[in-house]
Amino acid sequence: MSTFDDIGVVIPVREGSSRVKKKVFLPFHEEMSLLEWKISQLKEVQASDRIFVSSNSEKIAGIAAKMGVEYIERSDYLSIGHQASFSEVITGVVRDVPTKHFAWTTVVVPLMRPNEYAEAFEKYMETVVNSNEHDSLVSVNMVKDYLWNANGPLNYQADKNHTISQDLPDIYRVTNGLYMRDKETTLEEGYFLGKDPYKHVVGKLSGIDIDEMEDYEMAYKLKELY
Description:
By secondary structure, this protein is of the alpha/beta class. The chain contains six helices and eleven strands. It has helices at about 35-45, 60-65, 85-95, 115-130, 185-190, 215-220; strands spanning about 5-10, 25-30, 30-35, 50-55, 70-75, 100-105, 135-145, 150, 150-155, 170-180, 195-200. The strands form three sheets. Strands 5-4-1-6-10-7-11 form a seven-stranded mixed sheet. Strands 2-3 form a two-stranded antiparallel sheet. A two-stranded antiparallel ribbon has the order 8-9.
C-alpha cells in the first residue's frame, strides 16, 4: 500500500438522509454497511491514521473506532438537515483535518475501486502538488450521450446532421466520488475544487451515486461486477 502522508482522507457522514433513511447503515457486503465498506476500501489506499470520518453521531463514531480510523466531531449545525450551506459544511469539515491536502470521499459512491483512488492520489501529487498544472482533482465519467434541455439538443444536431455517439464532444459528469484540494485554499475560497481541476476519469460502475433506493438496489446487484 502506498501512503500519502500529506493527504487526509475525509469521509463526511450524516446519520440522517432525506430520501433514503439511515442510508449509510444499509447492508452492502457480507456483514459490512455502506459506511464500513467505504472505510475498508480506503484503508487499502491510505494509512488508518490518515482517514477521518466526520460526523455528529455516536453510532458513527463507534463504527470509526471499530474500523480503526480517526473520528472528527462535527457540530449539529453542520450535520442536521440543510441548515448550513454546502460551503460551510466543506470548510467546517476540512478545517479540522490535520494535513496539508485532503481527499473528500463519499459513502454513497460505493463502487469506486481502491485502485482508482490510488491512481487519483498519484495524479493529484503529479499534476497539482508537484507540477501545478492543475489546482485540484475531481472524479468524473466521460459522457457520450445525446443531451437536451428544455429548448432542444445541447451537444448535437437532431436533424439530418445527426452525429454518431463516439463523435460527440467530450462532456464530463462529476461522479461525486472524490474531490481533492489543499486545505488552505479551500478555507479561503469555501469550496473543494478550484477553477482548473484535473478530471480523473473513472469507470461507469464507479459513477453510481446512491440518491434513491433504486440506486442502492442497482449498486448492490452490480457489486458482483466490481
